[in-house]
Amino acid sequence: MSARVRAxxxxxxxxxxxxxxxxxxxxxxxxxxxxxFWTFCCINCLHVLDELRPLEExxxxxxVVVGIHSPKFEHExxxxxxxxxxxxxxxxxxxxxxxxxxxxxxxxARAWPTLAVIDPEGYVVATMAGEGHAExxxxxxxxxVATHEAKGTLxxxxxxxxxxxxxxxxxxxxxxxxxxxGGHLLxxxxxxxxxxxxxxxxxxxxxxxxxxxxxxxxxxxxxAAFSEPQGLCRLxxxxxxxxxxxxxxxxxxxxxxxxxxxxxGEVVTVAGTGRQWRSTVDDHAHDSLSVDLSSPWDxxxxxxxxxxxxxxxxxxxxxxxxxxxxxMYAGTTVEALRxxxxxxxWLAQPSGLSVSADGTRLWVADSETSAIRYVExxxxxxxxxxxxxxxxxxxxxxxxxxxxxxxxxxxxxxGSVLIADxxxxxxxxxxxxxxxxxxVADGLAEPSDVVLTADGGVLVVESAAHxxxxxxxxxxxxxxxxxxxxxxxRTERKPMEVAAGEVTLDVVFTPAPGQKLDETYGPSxxxxxxxxxxxxxxxxxxxxxxLSRRLxxxxxxxxxxxxxxxxxATCDADVEHAACHLTRQDWGVPVRVVExxxxxxxxxxxxxxx
Length: 610
What we know:
Layout: E1 5-6, E2 14-16, E3 32-38, H1 43-58, E4 63-69, H2 79-88, E5 95-97, H3 102-106, E6 114-118, E7 123-129, H4 134-151, E8 174-179, E9 185-189, E10 194-198, E11 205-209, E12 229-234, H5 237-243, E13 247-251, E14 256-260, E15 267-271, E16 286-287, E17 296-302, E18 305-310, E19 315-320, E20 325-330, E21 340-341, E22 350-355, E23 362-366, E24 371-376, E25 379-384, E26 390-394, E27 396-397, E28 408-411, E29 417-421, E30 426-431, E31 436-441, E32 447-452, E33 458-462, E34 467-470, E35 485-490, E36 496-499, E37 501-509, E38 515-517, E39 525-532, E40 537-539, E41 542-544, E42 548-553, E43 559-572, E44 580-594, E45 600-608
Pfam families: NHL (PF01436), Thioredoxin_8 (PF13905)
Organism: Micromonospora haikouensis
Protein name: Alkyl hydroperoxide reductase / thiol specific antioxidant / Mal allergen
């Protein structure tokens, strides 16, 4: 048995969802606490929020979840933005604002998300990175309840969560918008879990499609239910006639694509099982209703099918409404920036799509790399963007320009593209003819989409202001645009020191209580390793089935980022109808090569300290 570790005290800039009260660990004594280290840009963190909801409900009298918001992007350090994100994503537990990552370092977190389980006596009993831990957490909570109830150290009762006041606005954190016939607009009202049709003024409510509460249900407009819907795509008329619906909706948190008949508002599920994708990459076509999806964020008609920005697994997928099939289109699930043939390229949380006027190019807002990418002739390229950790607000030549977590793109008739530069609060424009990036508008509240209307106007979905905003008519002209030479940022996390030469990478994984590694469908574990720059690794890159890997680090390279993806399949032990589970995490680990540095690099996928 290893020594028990006392949980570090919770300190930060302030608390949310506590009614103005500062919490201390002493206030949580007697309860089981899950500290969830997250940042609101991170799709894996959003998945974990959804995994924790049923646990919070089931164990309401013994479990307290505390979110610790440790930001990646500069915008995420803004306390108002943190508060908005807590509401946007329906976070119903206390959240500590940790802008300088002090708590992140105190708890030795190395990846978003990381969970730390604290027992009723204030000791850390488990840590785990990534998503897919819900079943294991439930079993661990059951064990802790039994142990501490017997010891008399478990105190049942209400937790410290205090719900904020309900806001009153027509829209609440709208995500994407689509121009309809007659100048009307269809908007995904994401935080109200519905679609809203607005009149051409962008304000007058025509109708709402969806019951307005989180759920999953097909049917008439008033009874259908979504969960944080985002992207919208109008099908070509001849395709809609055969398919039986007009608009495809990315129903993000339900991991579904939904179809909407505009004449009636009826909603039908057209792709996805509702389960989150946790599988292996293949290039096969699947029955669209039998395949798992992962946080589809936007949709667009390109290459004679619907292309899906599958933010949850850093890929693009395709969906054929006529054949009712779906499959992978681009990306390998590795989260990084790499151009090349579609099957070999890397993306990072693609969140916005738009097709050029001539239909030859698909523009992609690749949010986590703060990049604008494009698909053309079977290849993925990069127009603007440097990588996972470089961002800012810098205009000028595209190879020097910087964005900050863009969520939307809009192709213009002249071949240029507008960018919803979300975390810079701006609309930017990239002109491929000149190779220049300029700022069209700024001072916006987290713009998440840009829409070109039939009359040539431009509407911005100003998500954190809960409205659509029309750009001034001259904003798109050369005179209307401006050139900003703002700050350049780089996410700075303390690098791990490693030795030059041989280094052992160990991913630590302990099956959850009551589970065992599952070899039913082949090897139970998988490890993928790459590096940026690639020269950092002389040996050890690639895919294997062992969670330990011998690396050879080039001593002539000062440092870089190790990209590590690990997954482990488990099943319930000693039961007749065992349930299966998959735990997965992607790490971008900054490393510095030093003479005489550590020759072992440990990463915890799931570990117990008991």
